Amino acid sequence: MTHHSKRLSWPLAGQPPAPYKVLVLDDSRAQRMLLVAHLRRWGHEVVECATADAALAAMADPSIGLVISDWVMPGLTGPEFCRRLRQLKRDGYVYVILLTSRSEDGALAEGLSAGADDFLTKPVRPPELRARLNAGGRIVAMQHDLLQKNQLLSGALDELRTLYSALDHDLDEARRLQSAQMQDRFRRFGAVDVSLWLKASGHIGGDMVGCFPVDERTVGVFGLDVSGHGVAAAMIATRVAGILSAATPDQNIALTRRGDGKLCALAPHLAAARLNDMILNEIRSERYFTLALGFLDLVTGQFQLVQAGHPHPLILRADGHVALVGEGGLPIGLIDGASYHSIGLTLAPGDRMLICSDGLLECPDPQGRLLDEGGLIALVKQAAHLRGPRFLAAIAAGLGAHAGSEVFPDDASALLVEFHEGGS
Fold it and tell me: What pTM value is reported for the model?
């Protein structure tokens, strides 16, 4: 093993000091020879310099960790050399011991102010010199170890930044894919308009809203909210929304075939039971979700609805009256064999139904007060003169005003069904 490879190591208690690379600066050749003889006898590698300028040039060597410098020299004095040394840009700390015959407090303060670490009084006694080198070596070794750990930490942080950047890119892509699930934020089905709004609390969220045509006079609508946040919740939300989409009607769990082979709506409570079985037996996730699923007759306005743990849908009648509907129910994926119940209601021309997640109702204001059902009803009444996406935008703006921020603590979603004149 070379001197260089073990120069910054430190021995256990009772062992001799490890060798270092030491620079000796003294204009006296005899004094240098004396110091160098001691240092080499102790196993240290030594660089000799007769002038401060030569010493400063030699300090380009990063392996030099200790300096022994005379105080009184022609040209730069010891303290002046220290000041110049501390101005150099180099890795690692250099421990400087000044040799002096001066012992007054003012002289020592001058040396410390210039950047010296320790002092030795001439004539130098070898045991004291070795002890001071021992102390300085400990400091240099600890600083070197700290520098290495900082470099490792810096490298690890760079790797984390790279990973986070890649993760952000993937999450942005996931958000775009999730948004594609509800690309049409406004759709018209005869006398019925359906508008959608979704706001994730992070890159992606566990809320989804959507609609799908069943036949020439029936449309299905749904809102769901998966427990928790992040990627896992978003994956389940996207999977369920895909199952309830119009893209693959044969795989839509809320549809069934009549005797003539045509697709028709399954009773909402049976569709909820199917979803519950699928989540528990196929996906087998620890997460559950709330759901509001309904089918609307585009001609009569008759609406069949199941509410599986989702907030109560809200009906805004044409005359301005607001009512909450639904019977609650168990979330999907929580209890094996859970049963659900469908309710029937009728939308008259001019009536609207709002299905929203608890991200709206449980959104707090800066004092922690939740919007709750009363606050939502107030927002709905304030936006009653608006239609479609503009209505939902007003609800979102009111939610932001309540929260005091456009960033909400939970995912939020809403679906608006509007039954126009001429529907019946």
Answer: 0.62
